[in-house]
Amino acid sequence: MLSLYPNEKIENQPVVVRKIDKKVGQNDKGYYHLQISYGIKSYDAKIWNDSPEIGDKINPGCLAYITGVAKDFKGTIQIHINKIEKIENPSQDLINKVIPSCYLNSDEMEKSLFEIINTINNIHIKQLLNNIFTNDTIKNAFFKKAAGAEIHHAYVGGLAQHTLEVARIVINFTQVFPYVNYDIAVASALLHDIGKIAELSDFPENKYTTRGKLIGHINIGVEILNSFISKIPDFPNQIKYEIEHCILSHHGTLEMGSPVLPMTIEAIAVHNADKSSAEINAFHLAIERDTGTDAWTDYNPTYKRAIKKSINI
User: Where, residue-wise, is CATH 2.40.50.140 in the chain?
Assistant: First the structure.
């Protein structure tokens, strides 16, 4: 993590350029406004000239070396960049250092995933899950992708972490509410965001793909589900419909992008588990990313509030 303090000098620091926009100041002079990051930490930055060469070479998603100084701007650290140089063909080691990553490694998460799958009793559902998560294409993407472009679990391994959190919350729901069907709810939790392997691009870009924008991860997830079900002889239609419904309704409302509302106990369990995982992690990310010097984050436009930073008691 890159933690900076006012007046701290920065020299040849590798960063990901997340955003860059050309602006005009009150003095009618042009400048560039950037958002740059190293790991989870993200900073606003300024380049106080409007050289077209900068706009031509530096683009969102690229890696760059920056030299400059950290400044206090209204209680928030802002980087004034004196020099920026795009990193052409960065090594994988450098990419791994700069991009945000999950605190859990993929081996740990893969082990946990299959431990959960092994708790499934229904032979058709267990076969379905094993077939999906041992598929090389899905496996390679699942443990590398984020669960979101910006708001929650927006880092390498975020999709797997979020999926495991949702599954564990659902498992706890089944212990509190024994009438929730364990196999349907847990399988749906593991598959609810599987479409994000195609909705989001790889890091360091981590943007919505054309397919992701046009179709969305919910519909892509149902496509993946049905493509694997079609290869399992005599897979029960009723189970198929139940899992499909949980995937289709997991955002909870039509306004939030679900084509149908949750209409089964398992679907409402998956929706609430998904919401809990996403919102708690989003608050955590907002705190981790914040560059302010006080006990509260800046106003969060997604949740329409500032968020109090965690304290040790």
Answer: 9-93
Beta bridge partners, 211, equal none
- Domain spanning 100-288 has what CATH number? 1.10.3210
CA distances from 175 to 123, 137, 168, 265, 292 (A): 22, 34, 11, 14, 41
Read off the pLDDT of residues 165-220 as tens digits, 9 standing for 90 and up.
999 999 999 999 999 999 999 999 999 999 999 999 988 888 899 999 999 999 99
Does pLDDT of 112 surpass 90?
Answer: yes
Report the chain's mean pLDDT, rounded to a whole number.
Answer: 93
Give span(s): CATH 1.10.3210, the chain. 100-288
- Out of 3.40.50.450, 2.40.50.140, 1.20.1630.10, 3.90.180.10, select the CATH number for domain 9-93: 2.40.50.140
Tell me, what's the pLDDT at 260?
A: 98
pTM above 0.70, yes or no: yes
Answer yes or no: are the C-beta atoms of 7 and 69 closer than 8 Å. Answer: yes
